Amino acid sequence: MFLKSNKEIFLSIDRTTTCQDHGMPILMAIAYWGKGADEKLKGSHEYKIICNLTDGGTNPSTIDNIRKMKNVELKHLERLHAKVVIGSKYTIVGSANFSENGLGYGSATNAGQYEAALQIATEPVHSDWFDELWNKASIVSDNDISKAFEAWLNNSNAGRGTDDTYESQQTPPKEELLIEELLEDEIKHPNKMRMATSRLERRYIEVVEPEKLADTSISTKRAVWNPAHAANFIWVMSGNSVEEAFSTRKKFESTLQVFNRMESKGIKTTKKVLTFLVHLAQDKSFSKSLRYWAQQSVKELERLIKEQNHQ
Q1: Structural domains of the chain sorted by starting position, each given as residue range(s) with its CATH number in brackets
Q2: Is there a contact between 77 and 133 (Cβ–Cβ < 8 Å)?
Q3: Which of 160, 200, 213, 282 has the fewest CB within 10 Å, making it most exposed?
Q4: Would the pTM of this model clear 0.85, i.e. be above it?
Q5: How many CA atoms lie within 13 A of 193 on its CB side?
Q6: Nearest 5°: phi and psi at 10?
Q7: Burial, 237: exposed, middle or buried (Cβ in 10 Å; 0-12, 13-18, 19+)?
Q8: What percent of the chain has pLDDT over 70?
């Protein structure tokens, strides 16, 4: 069967999953995975998945979520570029990665990329091919996820992944950006600037430094400064200023000032702040206004990083 669109491919994957023989894992050798792909895997089925974490085209947060699923065996393989799903009855071979654009779900329900595939009857040679790749692939480790974040940030799309969902340019929202969604009410001792809200701190730990979730004393960690830098950057990016208590000045009035402050903590801080801003630009649990200004902040921070690298 010829599948002539991303939606038809997505429906074929769903059909293949539904028809799967009980107790047999669905085999997926799909190079790149975008946001929300983990939510499309069914908890009632078992999976063996091979992805590519090295090219910068896979959203590391998605893979990190998948590797925590009890019904999934997960490996990664450098140079993998295949897009193949092998079920007990059907095999799908095509061009689509497991992303919103590739399969036409989520924000790309009525858009996405032009894709095509073939659905054919499964033969033993298909699983033999998968097993050969599986034996070459490696278990995904914490270090692999960390390196994948660097690749994802440094690729040509600067933090959005080569096949992660691209959204149309957001238009300025009607509602006003509220400082209460970003920053605490006042500067608290011994801080020199207003810190991020506890909600932002928690979300930062969840998506950027999840290894610290087990520690209940999150508020005492140096990691809380990274969401604080992100929150201050967004607020200033939106055209506002915010008080601080450094000896050199009393307010952040430009994104360059916030950038210089985060840079003083080291390049790793700036990269983690950028990672968090990329996430906030897509996180629909936050207001449209915050997401819009996070998106603008990603572009501005990328510009400042580029200028810094050229100096």
Answers
A1: 2-151 (3.30.870.10), 169-310 (no CATH)
A2: yes
A3: 213
A4: no
A5: 29
A6: -60, -45
A7: buried
A8: 87
